Batch of 2 targets.
Target 1
Amino acid sequence: SSHASVLLPNGKVLHVGAANTSAELYDPATGQCAATGAMSQTRWREWTNAVLLTSGKVLVVGGTEVSGIPNPTHIAELYDPATGT
C-alpha cells in the first residue's frame, strides 16, 4: 500500500492513508516501521494529503469517503509527534 508521508523534525517519517485507519512511523536509522496513533476513520492514499505545520504537528486532510464518493474535506485530523496521537 502507498501512504501520504511527512518528514518529521526528529528525522522519522509519518505514513498515513493506506486504505485503513493506521498511522506508522518509519525510522530511517533502524529501517523499521512502528504503529503510532490511529486515524478516526479509513483514509485512502489517492485522496489523502499530509503537511507538517510550524508547530511540529501534522495536518491530515482528505482521503475519506461519504457514501462511497471521495470527499476531500470531510474530516481533518492533527497528529502530534510529541504524544504519538
Target 2
Amino acid sequence: MLKRSIIVIVLITGIALSSGFLAGAKCQNRIGGGIHYLRTLGSISDNPEWDSDALGYMVSYQRVFGSIRLEGDLEWVPDYGGSDKTMFQPQAWLLLGRMIYLSAGIGGSYIDGDWFDNPFYGLRAGVNLTLVGLNFDGFTSYRFQSAKVFEDIDESDLDALTFGVLVRVEF
C-alpha cells in the first residue's frame, strides 16, 4: 500500500510540475542540492541503541508559480539511527510564500531493501533568498512518522525536527 501511495504522489506531482497547472502564471524551474540535519524526537530516541542525530544530503527540484512552489526532493541519509544502513527519502512539498514561506509535505523512507510501512507527513517553514543568480533556501521542519524500522527496536515513533539548507540554480 505504501509503495502505491508513493507512486501516486510522485505521478501527481510530476504531472502538476510539467503541465503548468496554474495557467498564466510565470513559471520558473530550479534544481540544486544541500544538507539536512535530522534530530529524532519520538519515543524511539529513548532507546539506547538509537542515534537521534543524522545528517543527510539532498537533491531538489522546484517549480515556481509566483508565491506557490512545488518541490520534489530526494534525500540520502548514511548511517540512519546509528545502524550503518543508508536511508533514501523521496518527498514532495507544497510551499506558500515568497521570501518567508510555510509548507506541507509527504514522503516515504527506503532502507535496507524495504520501504517503511507508513509515509511521513511534514510541516516546514523557511526563508528563501535569491542572490547573484543562486537561490538559497534555509528551513526547519517537523516530520510526523510512525513506522517499524529495525527488528531489534520495538518503538515506532520516528517524529523528527529537521534543519536544512539548499542552494539551487534557475533553468
